[in-house]
Design goal:
5-stranded mixed beta sheet, 2 domains, 42 strands, mainly beta, disordered N terminus, Immunoglobulin-like, Methylamine Dehydrogenase, Chain H, disordered C terminus, globular, 42% strand
Length: 549
């Protein structure tokens, strides 16, 4: 039996065999660099893995590194064999850590198992003959462990050892014994996704295979449950959730065209597809009722997970980060999305969006080198590596210099008079409009005071843009004609992207329509509208150091 993995660990590509990127760990709202290390590794294309306080990552220099997660200090290194392939990038797959072992492949066409604590070799397996595959990249697919089985895939075209092409392999994790192999008829860059006995894997030839992994033996292929062929390569890995598989299409060198994100049921029925203009090399990630992914055009998307029921799905929001490519997968923590780019930056975006098909940036941080691999979130740390051989550990700044508690100044005369059947407009203005002063959500309660009948009208009749993109936000509240005469509190509650809350209460008197409104007369700006202006000044001083926006 494999030992228990802590919930905050990140022991394999996208944390689990489903590739959902699930974590209970938090990630920074106010980012601060805890440590950075230049490992002189010729660069990193692999993502880190985290287990038992150690970070594991493979480099272009064909070394597997084990670092102390808290300090970045090197614990051990292990070197794989030199490769004759000009296309090889050393160890460019994410290690899987389980049962005290570290599993990964290299461009020498070998698959390795190392002791987690010491880095000593436990076993290795030559997947294919390196000399017969001079233009391929070896074992490139990130390994997945399920129980005592470890799965991986290879980029190979010839093998004098197994006499098969483009191997998908299952090993006994403890001994390295081959449990079964499968000919995919296409190079496997995609990490297999596993749910129970079902294994999903994509190929560079554009095929999606769904296998019954429990049926394979050393002498018999696992049963093929179903396959799909697409017009573009599958480089990103499938993601599994709620008995559905999600995957995107596109290759490394593909240019602008028609590319799709797909949703299929486990029996192979297409649920929906969503078209974008650039290849999708990232793995789609679920959160709430949406799916999040990026394309190589520098765009990030949120789409509805279930679809419209007509073979399509709804765009929730999209954002163009830059003209640089995005190879990596987005990650999510506490309602925030983290996405690296080849423009040397890692971005943090609001996950809910502005309600108008867009979302806003919370922060971004510039790093040394392009970022091709996905970051990881573990133990309240954000870990990311670059093509310049740098590894960074980013944490929450416990004492951020930028305040995110707004100062509130409410203008108006209380009590205000309004006729039933009229409108109340609330306008909020944020100055100067720094990232952390932006509103994440707004709710309105209209509650009668003691002695008057009627239930609170919680967030009914609200119209208008609910979030701040340009520093201004307007909300329209309609007063029903049937509202009982009396005094009411209009309570506006806002939540900033930092999680801080603010609220403002304006008390007013509702008179029946036929009376014209009692009390002191106040000249309103229109015949059918009451203007309540609440000015919220959220001073957001730019930090002298740290992320820019």
């Amino acid at each position: 039996m494999m030992p228990f993995t802590l919930a905050d660990d990140w022991p394999m590509f996208l944390q689990n065999p489903d590739h959902t990127g699930t974590t209970t760990s938090t990630a920074p709202v106010h980012p601060k660099l805890l440590w950075q290390k230049d490992l002189n590794s010729e660069g990193f294309y692999a993502s880190p893995s985290v287990h038992n306080g150690k970070m594991f990552i493979g480099g272009v220099d064909r070394k597997m590194y084990a670092l102390d997660e808290k300090t970045g200090d090197t614990i051990w290194t292990f070197s794989t064999s030199p490769s004759s392939s000009p296309e090889g990038k050393g160890i460019d797959n994410t290690a899987a850590v389980a049962g005290g072992k570290v599993y990964f492949g290299s461009d020498d066409f070998k698959f390795y198992s190392l002791d987690e604590g010491t880095g000593k070799l436990a076993w290795s397996y030559e997947v294919a003959n390196m000399d017969l595959n001079p233009s391929t990249q070896g074992v490139q697919a990130s390994a997945v462990t399920v129980g005592n089985v470890v799965y991986t895939g290879a980029d190979a075209t010839e093998s004098d050892k197994l006499n098969i092409v483009d191997n998908l392999l299952a090993f006994d994790a403890l001994t390295g014994t081959v449990k079964w192999t499968f000919d995919t008829n296409g190079r496997v860059y995609s990490s297999p996704a596993v749910d129970g006995n079902r294994l999903f894997v994509g190929t560079f030839s554009g095929d999606l295979y769904v296998l019954d992994a429990s049926t394979g033996t050393p002498h018999r292929d696992p049963t093929v449950l179903w396959t799909k062929h697409f017009d573009h390569p599958i480089v990103g890995s499938p993601m599994l959730i709620d008995q559905k598989v999600y995957l995107g299409l596109g290759g490394y060198s593909d240019t602008a065209g028609n590319y799709y994100l797909f949703s299929y049921t486990y029996d192979g029925t297409e649920v929906w597809r969503y078209k974008v203009d650039f290849p999708i090399l990232s793995t789609p990630i679920p959160y709430g009722g949406n799916i999040f992914f990026a394309d190589t055009g520098g765009n990030v998307y949120a789409v509805d997970k279930e679809g419209k029921g007509d073979g399509t799905t709804k765009l929730i929001w999209s954002r163009h980060l830059s003209d640089s490519k995005i190879w990596a997968t987005t990650l999510i923590s506490d309602g925030r999305l983290y996405i690296p780019s080849t423009d040397h930056r890692i971005y943090c975006l609001d996950i809910d969006g502005n309600g108008d098909g867009t979302t806003f940036e919370i922060w971004n941080m510039s790093l040394d080198g392009e970022i091709w691999s996905s970051p990881v979130i573990a133990d309240d740390k954000l870990l990311v590596a670059t093509t310049n051989g740098m590894v960074y550990c980013i944490i929450e700044d416990p004492s951020p210099s930028q305040p995110d508690e707004p100062e509130v100044d409410a203008a108006g005369v209380e009590p205000l008079d309004v006729k039933a059947g009229k409108d109340v407009t609330v306008t909020m203005t944020f100055l100067p409009g720094g990232n952390l002063s932006k509103v994440k959500e707004v709710t309105v309660d209209l509650s009668p005071l003691g002695g008057h009948s009627g239930a609170a009208l919680n967030d009914q009749g609200v119209d208008g843009d609910r979030t701040v993109g340009d520093g201004k936000f307007s909300l329209l509240y309609r007063i029903p004609k049937t509202m009982t005469e009396g005094y009411y509190d209009l309570v506006v509650v806002g939540v900033l992207v930092s999680g801080k809350k603010f609220n403002e209460t304006v008390r007013f008197h509702v008179a029946p329509p036929e009376t014209g409104g009692g009390g002191a007369f106040i000249p309103w700006p229109g015949p059918s509208m009451v203007a309540l202006v609440i000015v919220i000044v959220a001073f957001s001083l730019r930090r002298k150091m740290g992320p820019t926006s």
